[in-house]
UniProtKB/TrEMBL annotation:
<keyword id="KW-0539">Nucleus</keyword>
<dbReference type="InterPro" id="IPR026635">
    <property type="entry name" value="Efm4/METTL10"/>
</dbReference>
<keyword id="KW-0808">Transferase</keyword>
<dbReference type="InterPro" id="IPR025714">
    <property type="entry name" value="Methyltranfer_dom"/>
</dbReference>
<dbReference type="GO" id="GO:0005737">
    <property type="term" value="C:cytoplasm"/>
</dbReference>
<keyword id="KW-0963">Cytoplasm</keyword>
<feature type="domain" description="Methyltransferase">
    <location>
        <begin position="51"/>
        <end position="180"/>
    </location>
</feature>
<dbReference type="Pfam" id="PF13847">
    <property type="entry name" value="Methyltransf_31"/>
</dbReference>
<protein>
    <submittedName>
        <fullName>EFMT2 methyltransferase</fullName>
    </submittedName>
</protein>
<keyword id="KW-0949">S-adenosyl-L-methionine</keyword>
<dbReference type="InterPro" id="IPR029063">
    <property type="entry name" value="SAM-dependent_MTases_sf"/>
</dbReference>
<keyword id="KW-0489">Methyltransferase</keyword>
<dbReference type="GO" id="GO:0032259">
    <property type="term" value="P:methylation"/>
</dbReference>
<dbReference type="GO" id="GO:0016279">
    <property type="term" value="F:protein-lysine N-methyltransferase activity"/>
</dbReference>
C-alpha cells in the first residue's frame, strides 16, 4: 500500500466495494493457496468438527471455502474491525452462519481464544514481520500467542511470501516441529529456481 494506507483503510475500501457490487476483494495467495490448505486437511483426514482458527482472516473467504468443504467449527479473527465487518457480510451472503468472527489482536489474544486444533495463517505473520516497530519482538510474541491458542499436537499451517522454509523453521523452533512442506509454484529468475511462496505445516509439541 502507499505509506498513508493501513490494512484498515484497505479493508474499508473492500467493504465499500462489497456493498456496491458484492465482490469480496483480494484472495491472499489466490485460489490455489486455499485449495492447498483444504487438500492437506482432507489428506490428513482432519475431522470436520475440528476447531479451526484463521489468524488474520481478512475477508473470510478461506473460512467460507472450509465451510463449503464440510468444516463446522470455524473461527476467524482480525485486528481490523473493517476486515471483520467485510467477512461478516461475505458470511451472510454465503449463508454460513456457523462461522464465528471476532476482532482480536493476535499478539494479545483474549482468554477465550484457546484450545484450537488447527491454526491457519496466510500472510499475517508476514505483515507482523514487516512492522517497523520492534518486528523481532512481535514475531516472538506471535509464537507465544500461537502456543497459547493451539492445543498440544495441534497443526499450524503457514503460508508466507517473505520467509524461506529455513527462516520459518528457525522462527518456530520453540514449541513446534515441522511435519511437511506443501508444494507451491516455482519461479525461475536468472537461471535460479526458487519459490515466491513458502507453505509449511507445523505440529505443536
Amino acid at each position: 500500500f502507499p505509506p498513508d494506507c493501513s490494512w484498515d483503510a484497505a479493508y474499508e475500501r473492500e467493504l465499500q466495494t462489497f456493498q456496491d457490487i458484492g465482490d469480496a476483494g483480494e484472495i491472499w495467495f489466490g485460489e490455489e493457496g486455499m485449495v492447498r490448505i483444504i487438500r492437506w486437511l482432507e489428506k490428513q483426514k482432519v475431522p470436520l468438527d475440528s476447531s479451526v482458527l484463521d489468524i488474520g482472516t481478512g475477508n473470510g473467504v478461506l473460512l467460507i471455502e472450509l465451510a463449503k468443504s464440510g468444516y463446522m467449527n470455524l473461527t476467524g479473527i482480525d485486528y481490523s474491525p473493517s476486515a471483520i465487518q467485510l467477512s461478516e457480510k461475505v458470511r451472510e451472503k454465503e449463508g454460513m452462519s456457523n462461522i464465528k468472527l471476532k476482532v482480536e489482536d493476535f499478539l494479545t489474544p483474549s482468554a477465550e481464544l484457546s484450545g484450537f486444533e488447527i491454526c491457519i495463517d496466510k500472510g499475517t505473520f508476514d505483515a507482523i514481520s514487516l512492522n517497523p516497530d520492534n518486528a523481532a519482538g512481535k514475531r516472538k510474541q506471535y509464537v507465544r500467542s500461537l502456543c497459547s491458542v493451539l492445543k498440544p499436537e495441534g497443526f499450524f499451517l503457514i503460508t508466507s511470501c517473505n520467509w524461506t522454509k529455513e527462516e520459518l523453521l528457525n522462527e518456530f523452533r520453540e514449541g513446534f516441529e515441522i511435519l511437511e512442506e506443501l508444494p507451491t509454484p516455482k519461479f525461475c529468475f536468472g537461471g535460479r529456481i526458487g519459490n515466491s511462496v513458502t507453505a509449511l505445516v507445523f505440529q505443536r509439541k
